[in-house]
Amino acid sequence: MKNQFRKATLSDVNAIWSILQQAIERRKQEGSNQWQDGYPNPEVIKKDVEKEVAFVLIEQGEIAGYVAILINDEPEYENIEGTWKTNKDYVVFHRVAISENHLGKGLAKKMMRFIEEYALENDIYSIKADTNFDNTAMLSIFKKLGYTYCGKVYFRNSPREAYEKVLK
């Protein structure tokens, strides 16, 4: 069965929150301080859905992954300590999480490909993202998929590694 990538609905919030709780616990077990401050939470997911920026990856009929995708909407990126590769329109994604039941299947990379397709469908050729310096899984995905390190950005007074991929 082919993966499906679609906008999330309010009825998906509980499943999404369950996946994010698993990811929060994984970060903790790995010794990361990412997502250990009460963020993200169910209210954040609900707002993502209401703003129509919440997306789910469906695998074998169930929600296997979550991501929020926004266009030109990350004010913190204006304050980068470094330099972005482009200053044009961009897609930014946050809160990438894969269900425990689907780890090791390459679904995070598949989700990143769907994000690239989403950008191209909207005539946008830049994807920007950030992650914690100790989120080795995400850092590895950025490297494998051709993202370039651009500098540091800060969220809730915490430094994050900022990356960009230019699609064309």
UniProtKB/TrEMBL annotation:
GO terms for molecular function: acyltransferase activity, transferring groups other than amino-acyl groups. SUPFAM superfamilies: Acyl-CoA N-acyltransferases (Nat). Residues 3-168 form the N-acetyltransferase domain. The keyword Acyltransferase applies. The keyword Glycoprotein does not apply. Keywords: Acyltransferase, Transferase. Gene3D superfamilies: 3.40.630.30. PANTHER family: AMINOALKYLPHOSPHONATE N-ACETYLTRANSFERASE-RELATED, AMINOALKYLPHOSPHONATE N-ACETYLTRANSFERASE-RELATED-RELATED. This is L-amino acid N-acyltransferase YncA. It comes from Wenyingzhuangia marina.
